[in-house]
């Protein structure tokens, strides 16, 4: 029943029984209770029903309803509505509750719509890719049908010629018949597949070259037997020779002959192997080429393959020619083995026998060395023509053997006889940059006094090292019966005659000469030993150039090193233009490197048959007269079957003496499968680790108490004692260092490596247990097993070591400073009086204290200030005009003080000022004073230096000018005396506007910072550091600074724009662009390579889409797309070559699969601009040409990037790129030692009140953790310094700070929690369970500033002078929170430098 409300005639609402009331529609109720309606219109009113239940009628014009009051409230508000019974009101409230529930579900459902739409969009994208793939598949089907039709016609035509071909087959090519034992009736239909297979077979990619060589035995059943018999005979003759020479080689002369024959035997065998393989490849080429010519008119595709095969034929012919030449050159060595055996059956210990043996060795090395440059050139040509990383294994083995032989040749300690018309051009391996400021050379000399030519013309040339244009050089000569040292630094000759010991008074045996130059100062030494005692005569003469130059500027491509004479076509400078030397010469060292005449480029008129070398007693110049061996870090000794000299017993003992200035190196290593024993030097202390199959894993015995530091350039006796097969004892200098127990197990080894090991051993399964894989550099002697001596040079398998212990190689002329270190010496000097000093330096940091000295209040310091060099002498400052000396290159500083002037010279660019304090100048030093390099413990205005300092010298009144030996300094704080990890600027941090933000996915359009505060990172990229630097470890840290990583490989990803940028694009890029790169990834999408013009109309790219590699570029308005059929996101390394030619594009994968597509294009109209992107692109780039999923950064590792055959290594800018680490990983963000930082997005800021909590696992004891900086100079900085965590603030009033030092090391390889809480002027710092706080001055005007927050590092320009810790954090950070809000580094505004987001190398 309906009722009209308020007399208006409007129908009312009747609420009847529950069943009917629950039947209200959601839409009806939504309108009914919508407060925006002034009244309820009739269409939405449900009819009232009379079902025996209580009825409630509400007039639609009820004021309460019209004003939007809820119904259950308005029931009592309307006076004309009868009161409702309790049951009806409850029913009504139930309806309202359900309405609210429905509405909440509706909102939840609506919130999911965007996710569903996104998924549908992604699904639609995949359907588009599928449609594209289906389209390509349809095209392939169509092409296949056309090819099948063509092949069918060709088959019919071929069947007609079948009988003729069958009759002529044997006559055409008997080899083809042998290799192709299949019916010619099937040949046309499968020819394309065969041609591809043959091409891959020739290239060496389809089968290993060893398998081809093994198959050669099928040609001749007796061939293998003959070869084995021949090898057995050679080995028998060599063994017989070894027995004949055993016991008589006290000077190691004959051992050189044995080494030469061993090297010859290996190389000859492999060259013969390569020769046979090349012949097989040539026959295969001929086979395919002949068949190709027969069917050239049948299949057009075969014509293209035929052209390739013709090229391959030429390559293999070159290889055959080369190997034939090598075989001809080395065949006479087979006769040498027999001659050695015959001539030395009755060998006597006399000079003639030595001369004969040395002559044979020299002849062998000479023949090898003459051939090697030719072989290297040939191999290089083959490599350039072949796809990258696809060279046969035999060629690589020959290369390895050549490198081995070069190493051996450089250490052949045998002289050469010069007859006046002969000469040798030596091949020194040293970098000419190392010779600029300091040059040192030593050699042995013996005159042939009875030679009549020498009596008639006594003035003789000895050596010349310098440029071909005879500007900048050094040399030796005999003039007017004096030995004369001559050098020229571009101005005029300096001649230093040794007039204190005329040449005519020299003895008839070997003497040693050493010449040095440091800056302008030169020095010459002559040492004459006594044959009857250890006494020696020493003569010294000094001199200096008067010109302004102080550097020996040699050009790498224009430098020659002639000894004994010069070739006829070379014009020597007038001061050295003399007749050639007559007598014997033997090179010893050049700077720190051992060199030899037998490592030469060319030899002129050297006839060892008529003029054999002179014998030299190797112990004549060693005071102890004991045999010692020099290791240069590349070689090693091996003692095989050590139980032939002693037995493993209840007490097993190894003894050795070592002498080295280096920090790290392998001393002893034994390996048997997964079992091993390694004794290493790690940061100057011994590190012993071993595993004999223990159930508990490897055992570590480490000098953790630092009882015996052995890298002080002194001999130390090391003993390892294994007692009762269960206790390992370490003894140094007869002092017990440490011992450890293990499970009772005998030592399971037979061979022991000393000073290093072959690469295949170091890179085997034991590599993860080694502290490093660095070869030992220094001297060793007295190796014993069970108190039995071993002559390491006589052990077969020993490689790259030499007799003696050259002092020059043990001097620490170089020191590396890490920003927290310094060295100091106390000497009798007064540097504010008249003096001169200089040194080299290399750094990437624009600021730092290089040198410091004080006399009372007067200070003399040399420092870096914003890239410039500044000399401060008693308040007088001289600054270099150039401000780019923090470029990672070596620079040479000379400072001088005279009564008239202070002078500063950097790389021969001089600045000077008048000396206002003339009364001090010229005074003699009256007391011992201390000076510092690399920094100072005193409070100075400059931070300590980060970088390398080398070749320092001072002029003193009490001694001659000489290079400082830093090893002798009394104070050495956190300083390394070996290696200089300053390679190239990894992070040059500058303020710069531009495109250089590296944002995460989803934040592509977000601005970074403000216009004036955009931070970018130009750098020269991430180069691989030296191997020894990679294994460097902070002395306070458990983990090495650099986790194990793949060499020359870099990890991309973590952010959407992780990338490297390269500015150099070759001029001929538009005509031909050939790139090669190695990659590995698990990701299905990502950018690998991109380059374009400014408008991105012209472009070229390689990317991954759905796991497949896609090479794409434009040709005019046409887009060329070459796509692999297979997926390559399998986590394995793949080698990719992609080429854009004038009218064809090619994609070559792993040297096997060649995909190509032709196009019509005009190369002159195709131009691109820098930069070239690797691993990703800058924000906003490439979206015009590539789908968005593949525009994001490649997530994986890239290496070996080459452009047109040249390696590309120096990136101009780097963003979120780290070395490609090996081994397990875990969640976190890794800050690499190359430097870098993260800038948080603008939603995070550090104001007057905040709480920051995070966890760290450092790999260095010092570094910046967090930094915030405002424009008005206020800042907050949190850093570590020597394991202490400090928070330092400036709130506009002054600086204040608080620190926490843990009882245990913060750098112990474990995670540590750090929290900092700020409330205005109160700051609390928590590190694990340790807490400290500080109350600073209250700033009443303090305001919040939203400024960028830096994590892990900060640009140098934002650091104030009061912040002494300036280097970046090294290690992992995780669980970073600000005000209990998780911070995601993947959404950072900027990731600069070597930072890996979301992935940390596990400990």
From TrEMBL:
Task: State one Pfam family annotation.
Answer: Laminin_G_2
* CDD domains, per the entry: LamG
Alphabetized PROSITE patterns for the sequence: LAM_G_DOMAIN
According to the UniProt entry, its GO molecular function terms are:
signaling receptor binding
Parts forming coiled coils: 113-175
GO cellular component terms, alphabetically, are:
membrane
Record field: compositional bias (Basic residues):
991-1007
Q: For the region Disordered, what residue ranges are annotated?
A: 905-924, 991-1021
Could you tell me the Gene Ontology terms of the biological process aspect for this record?
cell adhesion; regulation of cell adhesion; regulation of cell migration; regulation of embryonic development
Cross-referenced SMART domains? LamG
What InterPro entries does UniProt report for this protein, alphabetically?
ConA-like_dom_sf, Laminin_aI, Laminin_dom_II, Laminin_G, Neurexin-related_CASP
Q: Keywords in alphabetical order, please.
A: Coiled coil
What is the protein name for this chain?
Answer: Laminin subunit alpha 4
Classification from the root reads: Eukaryota, Metazoa, Chordata, Craniata, Vertebrata
